[in-house]
Amino acid sequence: MASKAAEQRNRVQTALDRVRHQIGLVLGAAAGAREMAEAEVARLTLEQEIVRVGMDHATPAQQTEWARHPAAHEVFAALGGTRAAFYTDWSAGPGQLRDLVAAHAPGPAGRPPSEWLGRVGTNPGVTAPALWRVGSATAAGSDISRTFDVAVPLLDESHLAITSAPKTRPVVDGIVQGLLMRVLSAFEPGAVKIHLWDVGQLTAILPDLYPLSRTSALSLYDPTRLEDLLDELAGHIRRIHATGMQAGHTSLRELRKATNQRLEPYRIAVLYGNGETLDAERARDLKRVASGALAAGICLILVDVPTAVSASIETLSLLDERRAVSSMTGSDLVVDLDPPMPSGQVIRAANRIAEALIARQGGPRSFADLMPSEIGQESSARELRAPIGFYEGEAVEVVIGDASPHALIGGPSGSGKTNFLYALLGSLAARYSPDELALYLLDFKEGVSFAGLAPGRKDSSWLPHAKLVGVNVNTDREFGLALLRFLADELRRRSAAAKEHEVTNLADLREQDPSGHWPRIVAVIDEFQYLFAGRDQVTAQATQLLEDIARRGRSQGIHLVLASQDVAGIEAFWGKPAVFEQCTLRIAMPKARRVLAETNNAAVSAPKWHAVINHDSGVAHGNQLAHVPDASSRNVFVNLQQKLWELYAGRFTRPRLFDGAHSPVLEQFPAFTELKPNAQPRAILGQSIDVTEAACGVDLPRVPGRNVAVLGGATAEALSIMDSAARSLSRQMELGQVEFLLHCPIVASSPAVLDLKSRLEAEGHLATLTEDLSAELESIVESLSTTTPRILLLYGVDAALPSLEAKAVGQLKSGLDHLRTLLKNGPAHGVHTIGWWRSIARLKDTLGFGGTDDIGAWAALDVQGNELSPFAAGQVVHWSPRPGRALFFDRTTHGAPEVIIPFQRPETEPTAGGTS
Ligand SMILES: Nc1ncnc2c1ncn2[C@@H]1O[C@H](COP(=O)(O)OP(=O)(O)OP(=O)(O)O)[C@@H](O)[C@H]1O
């Protein structure tokens, strides 16, 4: 039993010993691993320490301590190896950096000031240096070959944030001033604008640059009004974005490259803060400006302005008065800042630049300065762009395109609107050929402001871009309507073509249809408020058409330029804001009301012969003031027109001139002179008020109702209508095919009737002037089925009525009965009556109870619209009689009556309301 227990204990003992042995082994291994790990940590810590301090920068005490470290030898060997490898590569580094800065910071951008300070720059600003020097840095090891230039990107590359150290403001000023002088001296005067704002002071910011503050190159802002500066910059950004980038470019830099022009100055805004965060609203504005600025060529230099700007920004943080660290070199390298440029030399240089700028801006510019170096070289595929004036020597442009498709121009009488229009038309016409730009010009003002653009008596030249010139249309609002209809039709035509080519805008259409003729159309309507000068159909239709064109014209290249003395007074316009809203280009002459946004008072303070150009619907930030050169005095525009005419007239037709003050002359009217005998004669009554030079007339086929009535007492107009009707018919009838029968009981009109008779006879026709109308009518009625076709020209039927009504003894029918029979049955047998009744009541008497159907067409003169209703299928007729115009209606062709212009008879000018 005992031995059994001992055996058992032994077995346990042996097992325990085995376990102990195993544990001992494991513990030993763990201790070894730990020792190794600790040694590794110690080694890494040492390595980290050495890297942090720098192998060559340790103090002797530190060196000794490091040497004592067990891993010292190994760590020094490894780091030494790495450093040697790095410096093998880096040995070329400083040299490469020097070359890089030399290449990207040429001349004043990177060279020492002694080489350029005081000289006026020559770079026109189409491209800009990418880097601007601030100092130098030296890579570890202090030999000179390791020193390289440190430069920062500015302008459209990057913003710059500078953080000062205590008592370093003069140093910061030196850096900022140095950078600004480098930029100002690199470019030609006027290419750079500097904006200075300092939270702490108004006047003493960078005083050495003050000579520039008498020019537009330097502006200072109120310390309490950072918003003014930010608003202004935001305005530039929006404007540059709107006008520039619509041409398909995303930045001003691209646009400069594409056009090879500077277009806008570079802008640098320096903001001095005090290290405190801006209030939330300003910080937001600043952030917004910063993010759009670079694409608009605007760069911010922020000194002690803590801000989270998301745009590209480099930093320079001062360590002390000589040194800084920069994001350009990383935090391990110290930048040795360049010493400030000598104050006296900076002042002298600033003075020179200011003087050069003033000399360059010169005195007031002239129309000739608006002209391009080469005529007609621009393409209008994307937009129209033309300078119309100057501000501080810089050209101010008007852009008509996608972002600003239509323009609204306002200014009181004499403020220079017409002159502005001439400057605009001249500048456009000189840049774009008539293949690129077609002009439709309408002036509702009394006078002849656009008349010179069409060929005239004194000057046979015309503006080849003009397709239509309408002058003196103040009483012919219908002509404005006709133009709008024409534009709406053209809009439809262009939309259809765009659809066919599966494109949505003019630029693409022109690309897809290179052989098509798709110029941009600009329709100028001066004093356009006349279109809305009544509560009538014309106003309603004009409003609707304008709205349609304004909305859809943009994509089809049809643009409106609407000018008015008093935009404020146009009721219909304000009631229909669509047109107004589409006019995003606003041009306010001095003292113009309501053209700009309500809170924008720029027009109030605009000096004489200036205009405020605003591409942003009149919001203040879009304001651009421009002096508009004299374009309208003698020989200014005319000379350009003559030049363009000589260049293009052979290829383009002359514009149609519509002059509301002059009635057309029948003998000069193509629709009359081209008439030839034909089977469907048409009596011409007058000229249509239309964009094309069209006649309006009445077809006289052998069908009932084809008689014509001339209504009203206006003698000259009535005689003219009778005359042109008869003479146009005579030209279309073979000799012997027709007889003209004339009757005129009005003594005063007899000479005109005799004159017509002899003209008809001179053409070889049979024309009889009868005294006894009743007898003639009776004989025609009796032989109606066999008679030769006849045209009865009855003057003053109202005066003939008493004798027509009289019945001879024993006769059953009077002359009036015969007349009624002829009006009813004559046309079907080729006997048509063209009669003049001086009052509608007498016409009704003539027709009796038979209704009005026998009068198929009429031309009304001085009669009331409401009297005409029965003759116009019962519709309400709006008609304000006016001299030299008639209201014309033909049942078979007209939905509603139209206004026409009777011809001017050679010996008698139409006179106002003349009666016999
Ligand atoms: N920029 C300018 N420089 C010199 N003279 C100018 C300028 N603008 C206009 N004028 C002159 O001022 C006068 C009036 O100008 P304009 O006819 O253009 O004004 P408006 O606003 O069209 O006036 P209205 O509506 O009465 O015709 C004209 O004799 C014109 O020659």
UniProtKB/TrEMBL annotation:
GO molecular function: ATP binding; DNA binding
One Pfam family this sequence matches: FtsK_SpoIIIE
Protein name: Cell division protein FtsK
One GO term (biological process): cell division
The FtsK domain, residue ranges: 393-598
PROSITE patterns from the UniProt entry: FTSK (PS50901)
InterPro entries named in the record: FtsK/SpoIIIE/SftA (IPR050206), FtsK_dom (IPR002543), P-loop_NTPase (IPR027417)
Organism domain of life: Bacteria
Organism: Amycolatopsis echigonensis
Keywords: ATP-binding, Cell cycle, Cell division, Nucleotide-binding
Residue positions binding ATP: G411, P412, S413, G414, S415, G416, K417, T418
Coiled-coil spans in chain: none
